[in-house]
Amino acid sequence: MYSVIATDLDGTLLHSDHTLDPFTADTIRTLAARGVQIIIATGRHYQDVAGIRDVLGVDAYLITSNGARVHAPGDECIYSRNLDPAAVRRLVQPDLAGGSGRVIVNLFADDAWLIDRHAPELLVFHQDSGFKYEVMDLREHDGQDIAKVLYVGDPADLKETAANLEREFGDSLYVTYSLPDCLEVMTSDVSKGRALRFVLDRLDTDTAHCIAFGDNMNDIDLLKTAGHPFMMNNANPDLIKRLPNVPRIGNNFDAGVAHQLRKLFDLKVD
Description:
There is one protein chain. The radius of gyration is 18 Å and the shape is globular. It is an alpha/beta fold and 270 residues long. It folds into two domains: 4-80 and 190-264, 3-Layer(aba) Sandwich (Rossmann fold); 85-187, Hypothetical Protein, Haloacid Dehalogenase-like Hydrolase, Chain: A, domain 2 (2-Layer Sandwich), CATH 3.30.1240. The protein has helices at 9-13, 22-33, 46-56, 85-91, 94-97, 155-169, 192-203, 220-225, 237-242, 256-264, and strands spanning 4-7, 37-41, 60-64, 69-71, 77-80, 104-109, 113-115, 134-135, 146-152, 173-179, 182-187, 210-214, 228-231. 32% of the residues lie in helices and 23% in strands.
């Protein structure tokens, strides 16, 4: 009945320290070996997620930058949506980022994570992959080939940022939270759900055969698209309100996804 698993990473598949625990990794590998197609669907950068996939050791489709990029198991980029360069050049301006300069601005290019200042505290998210940023004056970037703009800051500051984006861009951009301190911006025709539909069409698989897991606001369309969606018990309360009928499972820090998969596929828990 189930032939595809699509899962978010942070707050979902990954432990609280943003790494893969052995029980989860073993569960995913076991199902992949049985022919179940794995899809990782995340806001993270492709190069970062490729490193996590390699730790898993499975052939997986990678939906990254919240759906702005899709890579096939062989690392071929099969789907790409970029922000308008003029919009990018505006999005990196300090007055739009707000927060009196406290908000950290990031750009996700095809081959790089660009950031406007050193922020070593962000590297804890990338322990498995070893992915690192490059510091530059983002106001000098031409805005070309950017999948995502990421603002990192205190939720109160990001509330100001979100209001600035709404006032200036309206619904011409896709703006969402991946974590309370991470506000993400993509072009308006991007979402994890749209990218999932693209992959399922490529696999000639109906949504009825797809399981999905998520925990935050950028997972809404992913969970709406999959025939069998599940929400983490540690999910954002706003996500719970938006999707009250989606079943809730265990917590990410207790390997909730792995335990649920073992129930669904009747795998023995040693």
